[in-house]
Give the backbone structure.
Amino acid sequence: MFLILLALSLTIAAAVIAFKLAVFALPFWVAMSVFQYVHGTDAGVFLSGLAAFGGAILSVTFVIAVLAFATNPYFRLAALGLFAIPATIAGYALIYGIAKNAIDSSIALNILGGIGGVIIGGSAMAHLNALGVAFFSRI
C-alpha cells in the first residue's frame, strides 16, 4: 500500500512540476539547438553556452513582445501556440513515460499521453499569457 501511495504522490509531483516548467520548453529547445550549432563550429563550450543563453532569452523576448504589441488576436494565438507546441510534446512524453509502466494497452497510452500533452500545452499557454499581461501592466 505504501508503494502505491508513493507512486501516486510522485506522479502528482511530476505533473505539478510539468505544469510549472512547461513554459520553458521552447526556450530550452532553442538553447539546445543554438548550443549544438555553435559548438559544431568549434567555438568552445563557454561561447556555445553564452550563445544558447542568448537564443533562449531572445525566444522569450520575441513572444512577450508579440503578446504586448500585437492587436490581432490571431497573431497572439500564434505566438502562444509557438510556445505551446513544444510544451505539448514534452507533456505527452512525460505522461507516456510515467504511465507506460502501469498500462499495457498502447492505444490507452497514446490517448492518455495525448490528453496529458494537451492539458500541459494549455497550461503553458495560460501561464505565458499571464506572464505577458503581468509584465506589460507594470510599464
Residues 2-137 form one domain.
